[in-house]
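fyi for ur records
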Amino acid sequence: MHLVDVEKAIEHVQSCANFDGGYGTGPGAESHSGQVFTCVGTLAIANRLDLVDIDKLGGWLSERQLPNGGLNGRPEKLEDVCYSWWVVSSLAMIDRVHWIDQTKLAEFILKCQDPNMGGISDRAGDMVDVFHTHFGIAGLSLLQYPGLLEIDPVYCMPRDVTNRVLGRTSK
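which gave:
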């Protein structure tokens, strides 16, 4: 952290904040859940989540869930397994995972798994790939799916390892 001008980074992240509670790739850019992850993660690392309108952002993120249980990255777009990580990790950072239907999301992810190849695709019936397999499993871990260790949404390693490294006793 000593190599980074943390205050300037926070200033830039705040300049990317939007009226809807989300964050864009730059000032005035449309909110996107991938960028929300980056901005909220930056603020979490800097211990500045106090700058986030948590309920407004939580509302925007929870609206990313579609009737089939999947999540999209921004309004009016299709669901995609990768957003199981981008959206749920952001919700986890602000303690709002309970604002989505976790059971429906897990079912959506599992429907995207190829029973023969074992990987996960963006949507059911599409070709599996490493990217979506990775983010599907990461999303399931945040949902505390049985048999998976929960990943720390900020530091992207098992939560118990993050706690040991940072000397924390809880979340």
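The chain is about 45% helix and 0% strand. thats all i got for now
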